[in-house]
Specification:
The complex is a heterodimer of chains A (about 400) and B (about 90).
Chain A lengths: L1 H4 L2 H12 L9 E6 L2 E4 L2 E5 L12 H14 L7 H4 L3 H13 L4 E5 L2 H12 L5 E5 L4 H10 L2 E5 L4 H11 L7 E5 L11 H11 L2 E5 L14 H4 L8 E5 L9 E5 L4 H7 L1 H4 L6 H16 L1 H20 L11 E6 L4 H11 L2 E2 L1 E3 L9 E6 L6 H15 L3
Parallel strand pairs in A: 3-12, 5-6, 5-7, 7-8, 8-9
Antiparallel strand pairs in A: 1-2, 2-3, 4-10, 9-10, 11-14, 13-14
Helix pairs in contact in A: 3-13, 5-13, 6-7, 14-16
Chain B lengths: L2 H20 L4 H5 L8 H5 L3 H15 L14 H14 L2
Classes of the chains: A alpha/beta (about 400), B mainly alpha (about 90).
Chain lengths: ~400, ~90
């Protein structure tokens, strides 16, 4: 029994989460009506926490591409690419992704998590040094941990903290890997990538940027924050996911370094995982085409983000420092998170509840992610639900 | 133990008390004096975020870099003091 006793504290936390109503970790969406609406508990609910930034999950061309792929190539690949071979469509997506970023090399993974694990465990080893922004996603931490590299954190978006560590490393700085994200997922703030690139060039380090939440959102072409900051060509490795703006599942790494092609041979999370199913690859590829061909999606997304941010700001809520498609409301009192999250759900708005230790700064957040598919009425509905919290006590 | 180690341990106790006070840990009063055997997680229910934050405060205080991949056996004040002592020794 001792082996299973360790779950007792987890059970206590789960019971606590469900005590005030719905457990936020086990919401069931009975029916998906659109990218921004579902049935929860039999009630029409605005989905305000999906990361479906461009709203492409129901795009007719993406759906059609997925359907056709199943009919033409079957439901799955039934194994890894190294053992079973790559489908031509995997290779075509890798080429188009690389072309999109104007980089020569691209590699597709089965999930965004696997992309970070697979890239990092191949890239750094015991004896190598990594400097990681403290607010980076768990998948980046896990990849560094699995790699066995020496892992040092710098304060979030703090250039002085980063440079101090580069200085302390001395000669080792020129062989170290810096890791940041483009847009950070909880608070929606962005990395000062132009300045970070200047530091990495000055010290001779390499830089990996995770654009999971910024792909399709930032930059003239939608490549992410590095493009928006004018430094895309100076990033050594860009990683990202298909499960947000591209509305499917999977991950990728693109790079100017030919060594990316060798990662295929040494990356265990790539080698020992079944490759993405044909329908996922096809809908992702079509979503990438849509992202490139329809910049108006991005314009609508930003218009919506601005409306929600300003609407919640006008209520006096504590928001992140900049307008972005992630609008996170910070809660300062311990009794607020579960109660407020439940009240929003009762008011027909589903948000993400982020509580410590999953939050980056010890505070709790009601996190909204805006979609280009949100209608003006839905955005007003979200603002109205938050307004009702003001009187909830 | 030498004087330097004692000084390091003492400084970590001071830092921890200050961190716990500022992050609102009521257990500080119940626990009484922080000792070398004080365990950050089991004695003060610090979550992983708070442990990482505290490590960063230690880095700044001692002007060192702590490898978070090599902290598996450092749970108590005394064990953390050994880590700091070793890092300071290596940087000489």
């Amino acid at each position: 029994m001792a082996l299973l006793d360790k779950f007792a504290p987890t059970a206590a936390i789960r019971d606590q989460l469900g005590a005030g109503g719905q457990d936020p970790t086990s919401v069931i969406i009975e029916q998906i009506i659109s990218p921004t609406e579902g049935l929860v508990g039999g009630r029409h609910t605005i989905l305000a926490g999906t990361n479906n930034y461009l709203g492409l999950t129901f795009d007719p061309a993406c759906v059609e591409a997925g359907k056709n792929a199943i009919e033409e190539q079957g439901t799955g690949t039934t194994g890894s690419r190294m053992a079973n071979g790559s489908f031509a469509t995997h290779i075509a997506l890798e080429r188009d992704l690389a072309d999109f970023f104007q980089l020569p090399y691209g590699m597709v993974f089965s999930t965004g998590y696997a992309a970070n694990l697979g890239t990092l465990t191949a890239l750094v080893k015991s004896g190598d040094t990594v400097l990681l922004d403290a607010d980076c996603h768990a998948s980046l931490y896990d990849g560094c941990q699995m790699s066995g590299a020496n892992l040092f954190r710098f304060r979030h978006n703090d250039l002085k903290s980063l440079e101090k560590r580069l200085q302390r490393l001395g000669d080792r700085a020129q062989d170290c890997l810096l890791i940041t994200e483009g847009m950070y997922s909880v608070r929606g703030d962005t990395a000062p990538l132009a300045e970070i690139v200047e530091l990495k060039n000055r010290y001779g380090a390499l830089l990996l940027v995770d654009e999971a939440h910024s792909l399709g959102v930032y930059g003239e072409s939608g490549c992410g924050v590095a493009e928006a900051e004018g430094v895309l060509g100076e990033i050594d490795f860009v990683v990202g996911t298909f499960s947000k703006s591209l509305g499917a599942m999977g991950g990728f790494c693109v790079s100017p370094h030919p060594e990316l092609e060798l990662i295929r041979y040494v990356s265990r999370p790539f080698i020992f995982t079944a490759s993405s199913s044909p329908s996922i690859i096809a809908s992702t590829h079509e979503a990438l085409r849509q992202l490139r061909a329809r910049p108006e999606l991005r314009e609508t997304l930003w218009r919506n983000a601005n409306r929600l941010y300003q609407g919640l700001k006008a209520l006096g809520l504590h928001l992140g420092p900049e307008v972005s498609p992630v609008v996170a409301v910070r809660l300062d009192k311990k009794e607020q998170p579960l109660s407020y999250w439940n009240r929003l759900l009762e008011a027909g708005v589903y948000t993400n509840l982020i509580i410590p230790p999953a939050s980056p700064d010890g505070f709790s957040y009601l996190r909204c992610s805006v979609s280009a598919a949100h209608t003006p009425a839905q955005l007003e509905g979200i603002i109205s639900a938050f307004t009702s919290l003001q009187y909830a006590g | 133990m030498d004087t330097r180690f004692d000084e390091i341990e003492s400084k970590i106790k001071e830092l921890l008390a200050s961190y716990l006070e500022s992050s609102g840990h009521p257990e500080l009063e119940q626990h009484g004096e922080i000792s070398g055997a004080t365990n950050l997680v089991s004695d003060f229910t610090m979550d992983s975020f708070q442990v990482m934050e505290f490590l960063m405060e230690m880095e700044e205080c001692f002007d060192i870099m702590i490898d978070v991949n090599n902290l598996a056996n450092a749970h108590t004040v005394n064990e953390l003091a050994k880590v700091v002592d070793r890092l300071l020794e290596n940087s000489r």
